[in-house]
Amino acid sequence: MNVVSEPDKPSRSTAVTRDPRRRGRNLGLIIAMMVAVAVIDQVVKQIMVTNLQEGVPVNVIGEFFQLFLLYNPGAAFGMGQDSTWLFTIIQLAFVIGTTVAAFFLRDRPTSAGLALIGGGALGNLIDRLVREPGFYFGHVVDYISIGDFAIFNLADASINIGVVVFVIAILTEERRLKREYEHDDA
Fold first, then answer.
1. 88-121: per-residue pLDDT in tens?
2. Residue of 8, 142, 148, 184 with catalytic role
3. Active-site annotation holder among 19, 41, 156, 185
4. N or C: where does the chain have the smaller number of CB atoms within 10 Å of the terminal CB?
5. Does residue 184 have an active-site annotation?
6. Is 82 a catalytic residue?
7. Predicted TM-score (pTM) of this structure
8. Which residues contact 117 (CB under 8 A, 6 or more apart)?
């Protein structure tokens, strides 16, 4: 009599899997979301570049919410304006890191957060690679001005929303694992 044992089933208790059969399960979803965010970001940026004058605000909701075209050589809040090359490398690393991490993630909320971060990084990376003053040193197009907050773009918003989603997903998973562990000990 031949006894065929069932292979160990991968644990469903973590957002990260080491089981090669499950790797990349969300890879397509993550890459599709990243590309969608970057494409939408680039389309909106092109609309803004075509229709707005640099430095001339257009009121949407009074002076609280304005469209304000700005070419940003630095990072968030205009920091590091002389380090465009460094931000290009960092954004490239985020895009590559997000894609690599996709092979290990199986949890959809964690994957979605990571995809939003990667898509935003990709959108701004495209600016750094193709916009003036030239390859690798391009300035990022910013156009959203809310109150006294910094001027930003859709890619920046995607990165920030992605970080919030990612952190909430990790904390929720951690809490669930703790409850599961405590329940197993009882």
1. 888 899 899 988 887 788 788 899 999 999 999 9
2. 142
3. 156
4. N
5. no
6. no
7. 0.81
8. 94, 98, 158, 159, 162, 163, 166
